[in-house]
């Protein structure tokens, strides 16, 4: 349990060390940028995605397509660069001035796409809104430790936390920390008062301070953004527009990439990698992932309220076979919910081994000696369908007969959040590169439902360990607490962790400056088209 990756401490240092950066005109530490005089500037970038974004309100969604789009429309106080290090955004500096107080100095002269001006009061409005129980943002858990956001002066904010919380900058860098136009916030509260959805206003006309601004959306078809010519940063978007085209079928996305109808295919099935690499006009962009793919159990419904049934199904799954068969070896089996490279990962924690005979014995002890029938909820993406069929075959070995219930992604994610399933396929990326996000959001009882705890597990001992870990200030003790959390999860088995797939996108050869975060979504400001 003490064999901990040294990268954890590098990342942790980046999170807890305060930074002071000059105004945008002096910023030289951002991601690689292009020469503004380059003839390759301009053009229309087209990206193929699997589904519509769940919401264009960054407080209203927490899935990869929405996060990718929203990260370009809205800015945060800080953001993570390509090395997962915290960099200044709308905050010129972010400093921990007391154990439970962070001071943000807000950038002056920044305007939203709708003309509103950025100041400390606007920052407070956004951070208060995402935490407001009446708004019920599915990402509110990211700021559950924040007790108050105080305006000190026109461009200074103090963020107060219930306890010392070192990963706060990483949480603020998440799209949940996006700063939204005060006009949108006002409209969202009016809508809420009228019994309407508080995220509707931003869905119809999102307004942030980002390097792209909203142009149009055709539900089921596309979202189009255009370059923000008034962007506050010296490095503006390099292309004129970006259109996210909804193309659910992976082979259709590949075909459109090959013909040039899209420039980036997000994401690519491992089985299609060789096809992309064999084409001189396309290449693969691949990074290690912090995204865990899992088989989840609804612990509130029979028979999955019985830990023996959950453990039995877990033991029946051959993860190595899944990595080879579904991912073509492009990924690693998951024995814990935390990927190597995430702060909180430890080698040597308990895991559930593949054991068909033991799985059958556990089912018999639970009262199912002849097996059982179950329905598996999943979405219609090709890799998920292949995974569902593979699991159907593996679970049949212990007498578990699986029916596959498939929905388009939006309906699937809604049903999973509401607990309208018995077992289900899902994934969760530790976006902040800190175990608090990968464990607290997914397994604490406070987050049952859309925020992340879709297994609906409620375990007092687990809650206590998760609470203690996020409040602990000593890094070694914190690592040990997360090891205990992972051991408790192995005991309870609310999820069968399957694998950590590499993030794979396919890109046309004339696209430059594109890169992905380990969590899956990517950075588009510096993308150029060499045409």
TrEMBL record:
Gene3D superfamilies: Dipeptide-binding Protein, Domain 1 (3.90.76.10), Dipeptide-binding Protein, Domain 3 (3.10.105.10), Periplasmic binding protein-like II (3.40.190.10). GO terms for molecular function: peptide transmembrane transporter activity. Residues 85-448 form the Solute-binding protein family domain. Keywords: Signal, Transport. GO terms for cellular component: ATP-binding cassette (ABC) transporter complex; periplasmic space. GO terms for biological process: peptide transport. Residues 1-22 form the signal peptide. Belongs to the bacterial solute-binding protein 5 family. This is ABC transporter substrate-binding protein. It comes from Halalkalibacter okhensis.
């Amino acid at each position: 349990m003490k064999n901990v990756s040294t990268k954890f401490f590098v990342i942790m240092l980046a999170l807890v060390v305060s930074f002071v950066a000059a105004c945008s005109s002096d910023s030289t530490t951002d991601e690689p940028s292009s020469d503004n005089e380059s003839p390759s500037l301009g053009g229309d970038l087209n990206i193929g995605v699997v589904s519509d974004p769940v919401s264009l309100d960054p407080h209203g969604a927490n899935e990869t397509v929405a996060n990718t789009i929203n990260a370009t429309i809205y800015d945060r106080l800080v953001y993570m660069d390509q090395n997962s290090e915290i960099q200044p955004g709308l905050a010129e500096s972010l400093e921990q001035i007391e154990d439970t107080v962070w001071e943000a100095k807000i950038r002056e002269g920044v305007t939203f796409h709708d003309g509103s001006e950025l100041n400390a009061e606007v920052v407070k409005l956004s951070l208060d809104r995402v935490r407001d129980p009446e708004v019920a943002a599915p990402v509110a858990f990211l700021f559950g430790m924040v007790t108050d956001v105080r305006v000190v002066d026109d461009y200074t904010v103090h963020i107060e936390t219930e306890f010392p919380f070192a990963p706060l900058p990483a949480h603020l860098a998440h799209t949940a920390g996006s700063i939204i136009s005060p006009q949108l916030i006002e409209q969202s509260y009016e809508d809420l008062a009228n019994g309407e959805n508080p995220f509707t206003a931003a869905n119809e006309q999102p307004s942030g301070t980002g390097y792209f601004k909203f142009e149009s959306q055709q539900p089921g078809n596309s979202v189009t953004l255009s370059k923000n010519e008034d962007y506050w940063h010296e490095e503006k978007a390099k292309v004129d527009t970006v259109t996210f085209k909804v193309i659910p079928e992976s082979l259709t996305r590949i075909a459109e990439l090959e013909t040039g109808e899209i420039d980036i295919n997000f994401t690519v099935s491992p089985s299609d990698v060789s096809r992309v690499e064999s084409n001189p006009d396309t290449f693969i962009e691949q990074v290690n992932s912090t995204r865990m793919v899992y088989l989840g159990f609804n612990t509130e419904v029979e028979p999955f309220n019985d830990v023996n049934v959950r453990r039995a199904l877990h033991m029946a799954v051959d993860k190595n076979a899944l990595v080879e068969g579904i991912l073509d070896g492009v990924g690693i089996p998951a024995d814990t919910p935390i990927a190597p490279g995430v702060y909180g990962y430890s080698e040597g924690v308990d895991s559930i081994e593949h054991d068909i005979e033991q799985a059958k014995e556990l089912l018999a002890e639970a009262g199912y000696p002849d097996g059982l029938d179950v329905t598996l909820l999943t979405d219609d993406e090709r890799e998920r369908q292949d995974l569902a069929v593979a699991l159907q075959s593996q679970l049949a070995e212990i007498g578990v007969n699986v029916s596959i219930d498939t929905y388009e992604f939006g309906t699937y994610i809604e049903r999973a959040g509401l607990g309208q399933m018995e077992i289900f396929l899902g994934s969760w990326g530790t976006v902040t590169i800190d175990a608090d996000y990968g464990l607290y959001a997914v397994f604490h009882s406070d987050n049952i439902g859309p925020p992340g705890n879709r297994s609906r597990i409620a375990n007092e001992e687990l809650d206590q360990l998760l609470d203690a870990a996020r409040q602990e200030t000593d890094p070694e003790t914190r690592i040990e607490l997360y090891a205990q959390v992972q051991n408790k999860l192995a005991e309870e088995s609310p999820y069968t962790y399957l694998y950590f797939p590499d993030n794979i996108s396919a890109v046309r050869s004339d696209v430059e400056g594109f890169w992905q975060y380990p969590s899956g979504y990517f950075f588009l400001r510096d993308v150029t088209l060499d045409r």
